Amino acid sequence: MKNSITVIMLVFAMASYGQNSGVIGKWKTIDDETGNAKSIVEVYERSGKIYGKVIEILEAENRKKVCSNCAGDDKNKPILGLTIIKGLKKEGDEYTGGKILDPKNGKLYKCFITLESKDKLKVRGYIGISLFGRTQYWSRVK
Fold first, then answer.
1. CA-CA to 95 of 20 to 30 Å: which in 42, 45, 80, 89?
2. Span 97-119, pLDDT tens digits
3. Taking every annotated instance into account, which residue ranges of this chain make up the domain DUF2147 (predicted)?
């Protein structure tokens, strides 16, 4: 009985460690141009793909903004609650093959993300090849 409890606790500990060390979780976005924290994005998995949704906007004056420059279903939706990372798949150490939306200009870019460290996420949005794009480093929210 004691061994069973130990094994169960070990499994739960490993599962929670795995979640904390992956890309799944809440991340503080940091603007690569200003260095300011902008929002909290929750990165989650659905049907084997990775998505990210804005769950908090840190600047009070931007909390009620909508994505007026977005196209399709995202047009004029509130940025708060908007899915900005769409359909990434794991390939080795990175997640790629999806898109990222920049709510500021409404454009969708190709995207890949990699875990730089346990609490640092590299997010790269680009056009064409990854040489032409921008990189942000997001920090894990504890």
1. 80
2. 999 999 999 999 999 999 999 99
3. 25-140
